[in-house]
Design brief:
Blueprint lengths: L12 H22 L4 H19 L2 E2 L4 E2 L3 H26 L8 H26 L4 H26 L13 E2 L4 E2 L37 H33 L2 H4 L19
Antiparallel strand pairs: 1-2, 3-4
Helix pairs in contact: 1-3, 1-4, 2-3, 3-4, 4-5, 5-6
Amino acid sequence: MSHIHIPDGVLPTWLWAGGWVLTLVFVFFAGRLAERNDVRRKVPLLAVVAALMLVAMSSEIVPLAYHVNLTVVAGVLLGPVLSVIAAFIVEVVLAMLGHGGVTVLGLNTLMIASEMVVGWALFRGLVYVLTRRRVRAATFLATVLTLAFTTTLLVGLVAVSGGGNATARETGALDPTTMSFGNPLSAGVFRAGLFDSAGTRAAPAQQPGRPAAEPSLSVARFAAVVYTLGPVGWLLEALISAWVLGYVARVRPGLLWDGPLERRDHAVIGDGQVSG
């Protein structure tokens, strides 16, 4: 996925500050556009989809160090406007959980929002070509293409930032120095040290008064790692997304074809008029 697991103080100020400015601008205009339609019908769907994304992004496929994110599913269900708002909400919560620093929250929002919007656009285009009877095929192709695109954006971001921002702990069973796979459970199921105070990894040497640092990767090596691990994750994500949207197409097709922002000419039950 395109989520940036970079702590504060690593990226140059101009880069993360620019990400924050663009994010606030996009969120502001997305909020204004959303207000033109019935807000009350949008909030429950927005909340549910954002919660699903949070659960997915908090679960890691250990051997691949890949997080399923459901961004294409979310983008298709929410549309481009609400996708920006949902991406910001999700990234705020993830930042509080330690999935990246606070300074990179803006860049993370832009990356995830772009993934949702591109996924929505590709899905719509593929459905137009393949027809609505091929929802699963359209979703599968849209997800693979979207994740390939945003992974390339991530590599470009690391390159623009000066490189060296990816660490070995983010590569799962893949050894970034030799580009070979090892047994991800060789040190036990809880090899990350969550239930073992002693840990399983030797602490790196550090100078007095300075925090320990993980070994960094060059841009070329980082690109090799993500393009080695990425395709497997893309396929898994595409299969999950295809199953989810295929199910939605059967039970609630209106969520796919009408969208949450469609206008209604009739009153919705419970929408009472408030007199001033």
